[in-house]
Amino acid sequence: MEIEVLGPLAAAHNGTSFAPTAGKPRTVLAMLALHAGSVVAVDQLITELWPHGRPRSAKTIVQTYILSLRNRIARCRPNGDSSRAAAKGLLATLPGGYQLNAPEARIDVVQFEKFACAGHRAREIGDFIAASRAFSDALTLWRGGALMDVQRGPHLDVDVQRLEEARLNVLDCRIDADLRLGRHHELLGELSALVSQYRTHEGLCAHLMLALYRSGRRDAAVNAYGKLHTCLIGELGLEPSAPLRRLHRTMLASGRDTQDLDTSWHEATTEGRHRIVTGDFVRGR
């Protein structure tokens, strides 16, 4: 069984898709897929499907969706009764709810988390080549916004927000590793696009400032800070954080030791991971 949630929802068994096309059954599958290996309570499914009031037959309708999913899984196998029994094992009824049993190696979100953890471990010991590679492997699993084609209720909204935050964190850490490896020239285009998307993300702005400065474009680095300052003041009434202001001052002071610059950048990006404010959402990691 293969499950993909980091983009459009996809689910296949023996190479055949069993993902339904109707909205509510897809929501049920998404809930089960995101929590594969754990029981999803019937009440959680009902709240997700009908957040503004459940119908009287809600439990029966959920049972119907589960039966339909099992039938779709069974059709992916060729052996009649044994296929139906296997489908019950893969989508099990347990006290209080249902559990989708899929191998962890075939669930993209589990693999994303494993690669991310490997990247963080490598980064902690200073192996930035391995960290960059692991973070890159994690990011390649994304095919778009998480569950971008699924109708979401309150539970999936929280799950998707968590996943998107994790994606941005991994992206931030991969760029950090690449900058430490001296890849500032290669990062300029990507960072410029990201800073345009996340206009008040201080960590990404600090990365762009450093990449520009190291590429001999101190004026552009200072200008990037100015744009962030304007956005923060104009949209949110906030000043840039103290570490980012220090990075800006360090860049203005020509002839400063590069160690001062690296220290200021490190402080600014660390602070930026805890103080992320954008025009579209507020994040705290």
Commentary on this structure:
The protein has 285 residues and is mainly α. It folds into 2 domains: 2-103, Arc Repressor Mutant, subunit A (Orthogonal Bundle), CATH 1.10.10; 183-285, Tetratricopeptide repeat domain (Serine Threonine Protein Phosphatase 5, Tetratricopeptide repeat), CATH 1.25.40. The chain contains 12 helices and 8 strands. A hairpin with a 2-residue loop joins strand 2 (10-13) and strand 3. Helix 3 (58-74) packs across helix 4 (80-90), helix 5 runs parallel beside helix 7 (154-180) and helix 9 (202-214) runs antiparallel to helix 12 (258-272). The relative contact order is 0.10.
List descriptors:
285 residues, Arc Repressor Mutant, subunit A, 2 domains, three-stranded antiparallel sheet, 8 strands
Shape: elongated
List SSEs in N-to-C order.
EEEHEHHHEEHHHHHHHHEE
Mean of residue pLDDT?
Answer: 88
Tally the helices: 12
Number of domains: 2
* Low-confidence runs: 274-285
Question: What Rg, in angstroms, do the CA atoms define?
Answer: 23 Å
Sheet with most strands: strand arrangement: 1-2-3
Calculate the terminal CA-CA distance, rounded to whole Å. 32 Å
Q: Count every beta strand, where a strand is a DSSP E run of 2 or more residues.
A: 8
Main β-sheet description: 3 strands, antiparallel
Give the DSSP E fraction (strand runs of 2 or more residues): 5-15%
> Which fold name corresponds to the CATH topology of the largest domain?
Serine Threonine Protein Phosphatase 5, Tetratricopeptide repeat
The CATH homologous superfamily of the largest domain is called: Tetratricopeptide repeat domain
CATH architecture of the largest domain: Alpha Horseshoe
- Helical/strand content category: mainly alpha
Pfam family, one: BTAD
Family: Belongs to the AfsR/DnrI/RedD regulatory family.
Protein name: DNA-binding SARP family transcriptional activator
GO molecular function, one term: DNA binding
